[in-house]
Structures
1.
Amino acid sequence: MKKSILLLLFPIITYAQIPANYYLSAENTSDEDLKYELNQIIDNHTIFPYTSSSTDTWNILSETDKDPNNPDNVIMLYSGISINAAQEYNNNNGWTREHVWAKSRGDFGTEDGPGTDVHALRPLDGTTNTVRSNRGFDNCNSCIAVYDKWGNDTGSFRDANDFSFEPRPEVKGDVARMIFYMAVRYEGYDGYVDLELSETILGISDNSPLHGVQSTLLEWHRNDPVDTWEENRNDIIYYNYQNNRS
């Protein structure tokens, strides 16, 4: 992870109701030292299963991404559409779980840790999930509009030539910060894959633990700052479930 990302990380994570001294060990550090200290703070989080008869990622996302105007619904990441939270997959007629850091980029699938970390899981319809696939994030040049399974224009795009995906403007910063979180949390120290940022758009069959495009994600982060939705989501994950912050 380059210095430019590291210098941004500390201000990114100083939002919401942070416990006293939570980031104390990272203060007055920079570059790789900062990345290491942040990793040590947010690692060893409480892990919940991907799918289970007990509390799992479905349950957590139903709370973290709850529609504030309709508590029975969840908000789809790339469209903002609200659908019934009880419709978990439902033979692909409901919603699914989007790995914002594509689970093939590092080939971790849905295994405990990177595959179940709800800081980077979000509700999504199956059609948009298929279109996004494991595309890297970038501004499109030859833009093709993405429609969800119900025919709604999501406001997101895929590129006709590059294997990339551009989310709707309202969540570009959210996407960037979720990718930044994964690159800091998963450093390979605890047996999990070492995830890193890249300027490269990888092909569909490339399982390298890289995700980009770093410079574009930085731009999205700057242009779409943290809002109360992200703050609330972070607090729910920290206090109610994983006991770590993004």
2.
Amino acid sequence: MNSEITEILKPEINTASPVIRERQLEGLPPAVAGWLKASGIIGKERINTVYLRQQGQMKMKPGQKRWYKADAEQYFSVNHPAFVWHVKMNIPPFIPIIGRDRFADGKGEMQIKAFGVLKVVNEKGEKMDESTMQRFLAEIVWFPSAALSPYITWEGLDPLSARAVMNYKGTTATGTFYFNRQGDFVRFSAMRYKDNKPDSRRYEWIITVKEYSVINDIKIPVKLEVSWLLDSGLWTWLKLEVREVRYNVTGEA
């Protein structure tokens, strides 16, 4: 993971972080402009890199009753959109699992290893590229100034929602952001590939905010639930809590 973190952070280290001005919100859909104002980014430096520490509970398949505890760290770069997400969890009977999602240069990749060495999943390809980019797009709510990036275009749908389209290095991803009347982001929805198989279908992938907090003077969601709307119904598979956030980091935390 160390080399991958360096790879995505290095191009951002000497990048300027200009202060965000309200005039930069001109032309955005009202719902998006309202969210950026409510988040508190006006007058703050633009965010180029991010470190997140997360705790969560996960389910591996529909119908599973038990939640597995997970601990994760994630690094983002913004001007050259990329992330590395590293998660650790234990699955009975005492099987340590290490997972890694990576997005860089418009390409996505997912790996899962048992006991830290036995590779059980190693997924790549066009479906993974799109799905991983959709994840990056959804997660800009943790660093809202990224909404102003040139690779994202916005279309207002109604006073409380907007569709975002992200284009970068040949990959395109789309998702819809929903907001409340106070300007807070409350939900994200995208038609996303659930698997990476030749016959995989897109299903609605939903992120729902449960709690907000002000961190580094920016209001962001810190408790979220992630679900799939499958043929069998709504399946919530992840409950996530952000425990630490650092902006404009230059190396590993």
3.
Amino acid sequence: MKMLSMVVLCFAVLTASLFAGAAFGAEEISINGSTTILPFAQSTAEAFMKINPSTRISVSGGGSGNGAKALIDGVTSIAAMSREMKSEEADAAKANGRNPVKHIVAVDCIVPVVHPSNPVKDLTTGQLRDIYSGKITNWKEVGGPDKKIAVIGRDTSSGTYEVWNEKIMKGEQVTPRALIVASSGALVQAVAGNTLAIGYDSLGYVNEKLIKALSIEGVQGTPDTARSGKIVTSRNLFMYTNGNPGGDIKKYLDFLVSDDGQRYVAREGFVTLK
């Protein structure tokens, strides 16, 4: 009886050790940053884990700036960014013993968005700048109703804000009247809930039932105009790693830019590399 108990105990310990070893050997990957990239980062991570069950990937938003900081501080494997890393961020990373390496994972363009009931269809870059700086305050000045414009923008940690500031605002300050939201999804909800609102968001977040995308200078935001750069707000979407990646981080990034991975990018409404 004692011998049987000892055999059972040894088997239980061995089994527990094997499971612990499997868990211990699992690679943990964290992705932190851009809320623009969040939808296809999540879907590709889930798809990758299905074919690589020993790998665990966690995905969180917070903005491109927060993603860069997390990589600088060494608390994330991958920084998801909807803009390029700034020189001061790269310098801070190097000062912290890290070497940010850029990977282009998708293409995008930022589009002005309004409530579907708004009759305005197109705005120039000058009109957009004047609306966001507070020089134009009424929709009638740009072909809309005689109503005040409700300006909605993004916070400064957002890569979408950075690109909009560079390509549309040209450094001009946003009106203090603007409502500032913290994520792409929050901007969609804010514009969808206000018939007089204007915002700007990634092409991948345009839901025609909720918001209407405007053209800029007569150019619609489409996969073709984003890839060609014909629309002024076109941009690449990035993931940054500390040095050239290896192991499961490399496998995940290779999957993301593969034909299979890019199908998830397209399914989420974003623009594929090819």
4.
Amino acid sequence: MRIALTRSGGFTGTRVRVELDTAGLPAGEEQRLRDLLAAAELKASRSPAVRDAFTYDLAIEDGGRLSTCRTDDSAMNDHTRELVDWLLEHAPRV
């Protein structure tokens, strides 16, 4: 499975992109990521007129199937926040 996350916007308008291929993860970390993905309710959700919020674009390629999602800080649920935080901490920046 390959995952790409792009965080953009915020107060300074910065952009961060991370990419991860689960084939390179230790078994425990891969399972943790799969658990986070299963718990996250990945659906497009944006709040109107939220100034200085980060926007997150997530792309997941698994078994030839591509899933995408766009959300922002104020519309994101707790499970999706946990997934995003994990990716920003563990995935290499590109």
